[in-house]
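Incident log, structure service

09:12 report received: a user says their structure output differs between two submissions of the same chain.
09:20 pulled the input from the user's history:
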Amino acid sequence: MQKDLGRAYYDENYGDYEARTTLAKLAFYLALVRKWVPEGGRLFEMGVGQGQFLQLSAAHYQVAGCDINSFGVAQTAARVSAAEVIQGSHETLANRPPLDAVVAWDVLEHLPDLDTALAAVRRSLAPAGKLIGVVPVYDGPLGWLVRRLDKDPTHVFKEGRRWWIDKLASEGFELLESGGILRKLVARNHYLHLTCPQSVLRSTGVAIYFVARRNDY
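09:34 re-ran on a clean worker, output below:
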């Protein structure tokens, strides 16, 4: 497990974390989940951050989550008092009732034991369960910019979009949907988060989103 850096992690790597966690971004994430996961299902968030998404999704799902960061866990528990929020990583998925969805927004690239984590996610899902997430990508015409702006030392996987799609397939997931995202902090406290037009962003975005189903065939 990576070192718990507490609040300093957010301050040093993300500045104004709230400014980066805009309602537009959260609404896109929730709409994606609601498209693929039935209302009222069990949802687990890997890497809850400071709890903004879990708070929003609690109105639609039975929610729980984890994070290795103690400050993030405390913030999330305060935001979503009814949710079980545990300090830890993918090992916290063990011994749970089958999940309808595991979501991981900008989390998988942090996991040095990625294969083990994806196997744990797959085991935790119900037969039709979904892994839904976002990862930064370092290929395409803007790949150089992503590398230059990426100051987070905990990013251990700096890969392209095709690499991530192939990784999901190799770990027993069937890709149902994917697309590109263009995002950037502008003017200090304004966060740009674009998801269309996909005809352009699918190959040029600085991140990708994906929906993958546990493949039992």
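09:41 both user submissions now match this output. Likely a transient worker issue. Closing.
09:42 reviewer note: The beta strands are 42-46, 62-67, 84-87, 99-105, 125-136, 173-186, 190-194, 207-214. Residues 23-36 form the longest helix (14 residues).
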